[in-house]
Every structure is written in C-alpha cells, then in structure tokens.
C-alpha cells in the first residue's frame, strides 16, 4: 500500500510529524495520537466504552505499539473511555493530580451526562464502565514523555475551563483540551473565567513553539484564533462584572449584549456570581 493510499484509508488528520487528530461522535471529541518508535500516546479517550472502542480501532489502524493515555481535563467526554483503554492494554494514564481527584470525586455524578449516548456507562452496567482516574500525575513542573524519536510535554498553565486543564505539546502541535473551543462557545459551567483569560494569554505566548493548536472540539486553529477567543472572553467578563457591580440592575440584562449565545452567556453570568460569592465568604471568614 502506498503512503497516499494509507492516508486515505484511515480517519485521522495528520497535523505534524508523527502527530494526528481524530474526531468522533458523540460530542465531536478531538482525540490526539502521537506515535513514537517505542510507544504511542492517546490524548482523551471519549465518553464511554462505545466511543472508546471506535477510538482504539482507529488507533490500531495506525499503530500496534504499546499505548499510554493522557486526559486533558476531568469532564466525562474526555475520561470515560479510560477503563476500556486500560482493559485493552494501555498503561500510564496521565493527568493533573487535580484532574484525577475530580474524576474520583464526581465521576459517578457525571454518569448522567451520557444517559442518551452511552446508556451502559450511565448505568454502570456491563464491561469497561468503571470510573478510571489517571494514575500518573502532573503536579507543578512539566513532564516530558519520551515515546521514542519524539518527546511529548505535559504541562499546566493555570485555571480555565476547569481547575485541572492539561496541555500536551508534540512537535509543532499543542493539544489544548477545552481551553480552546472552535465552532461553539466556551463551556463556563465549572470554569474560572478571569483565570481562563490569563491562561489563554500564556498559550498565545507559546507561538514560537507551536503553530497548530488543537481544541477539545472543532477544527485545529492558529494562534490568532486563540487571541481572538481571549479578547472575546475578556470583553464578556468585563461586561458581566459591570452588570454585577450595578446593584440596582437585573444582571440578566447583560445576556443579550454578551458575545456568546444565550445558554453560555447565562452560564458565564452564573459562574461569575458563584465565584464572587465564594470570594465574599472567604473575606468574611478571614475577618472573623
């Protein structure tokens, strides 16, 4: 089989030397694959065993090397395929230490999110439906993984989409998880919007190292896209905080002028109100 025919026979998009991306439903997840000479790294495993099986089948269409896994953050659509991969020989599941803790703490609660798409996972019924947190942790300093002929860097730049987002750099490609979102609004439900802006700024400063940025969902983007997301989020947070500071104004009136759809605008407002309440409680506690 020629190299051109081989490229056409598999569903992967090659982004760099030994670096690929695969999009699978449900949730339009982008899974990354980095193939060394000794082993291969899978980035995010899907929302349950059914999706994980499709991902692993695609992986095995490219390589039969031993596998390790990294989870970019603790949301179900990125980690619920871990048990399937573990059962099929994958070793060394990497994430931030906080990601592993959140998966342990909230994994059972997150099962409800896949009730329609992966009912067996939702009901903890059948094979490979256990919650499987990462067993290798990134805490503080970056971690370099030598796959043989290519090294991958795992690093945390700060809070953002969650409090446990991990970035994965391979060659000229940076996998950002849901810190970057293409084709849809960012997800604010358990985010840290002010810190997210700063984290995006740190990502844009890496443009001398990376020129392809792979979001958790959507098409790969360049650094200009990341900068645009940063500026849009900064504007949205500013508008929302002004509305929150105007005690006499119904804060929901800010929703129509935010640069997002109604659902995520409301999620941003709710999240900022929640975080502001936490900070108020912390100040009250420290003053007693």
Automatic annotation (TrEMBL):
Coiled coil: none annotated. SUPFAM superfamilies: Metallo-hydrolase/oxidoreductase. Residues 28-217 form the Metallo-beta-lactamase domain. InterPro entries: Metallo-B-lactamas (IPR001279), NDM-1-like (IPR050855), RibonucZ/Hydroxyglut_hydro (IPR036866). Gene3D superfamilies: Ribonuclease Z/Hydroxyacylglutathione hydrolase-like. It holds the Pfam family Lactamase_B. This is MBL fold metallo-hydrolase.
């Amino acid at each position: 089989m020629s190299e051109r025919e081989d490229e056409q026979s598999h569903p992967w998009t090659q982004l760099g030397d030994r670096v690929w991306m695969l999009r699978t439903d449900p949730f339009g997840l982008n899974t990354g694959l980095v193939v060394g000479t000794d082993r291969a790294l899978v980035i995010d495993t899907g929302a349950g065993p059914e999706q994980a099986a499709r991902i692993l089948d695609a992986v095995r269409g490219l390589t039969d090397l031993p596998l390790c896994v990294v989870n970019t953050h603790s949301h179900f659509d990125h980690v619920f395929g871990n048990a399937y991969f573990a059962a099929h020989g994958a070793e060394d599941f990497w994430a931030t230490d906080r990601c592993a803790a959140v998966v342990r703490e909230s994994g059972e609660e997150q099962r409800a999110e896949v009730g329609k798409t992966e009912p067996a996972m939702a009901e903890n019924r059948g094979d490979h439906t256990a919650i499987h947190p990462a067993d290798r942790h990134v805490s503080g300093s970056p971690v370099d993984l030598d796959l043989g002929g290519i090294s991958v860097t795992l690093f945390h730049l700060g809070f953002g989409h969650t409090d446990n987002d991990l970035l994965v750099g391979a060659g000229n490609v940076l996998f950002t998880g849901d810190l970057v979102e293409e084709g849809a609004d960012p997800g604010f439900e358990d985010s840290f919007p002010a810190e997210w802006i700063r984290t995006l700024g740190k990502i844009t400063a890496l443009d001398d190292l990376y020129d392809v940025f792979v979001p958790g969902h959507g098409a790969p983007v360049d650094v200009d896209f990341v900068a645009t997301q940063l500026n849009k989020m900064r504007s949205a947070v500013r508008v929302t905080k002004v509305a929150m500071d105007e005690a006499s104004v119904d804060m929901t009136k800010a929703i129509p002028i935010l640069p997002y759809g109604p659902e995520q605008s409301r999620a941003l407002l709710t999240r900022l109100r929640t975080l502001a309440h936490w900070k108020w409680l912390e100040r009250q506690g420290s003053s007693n």
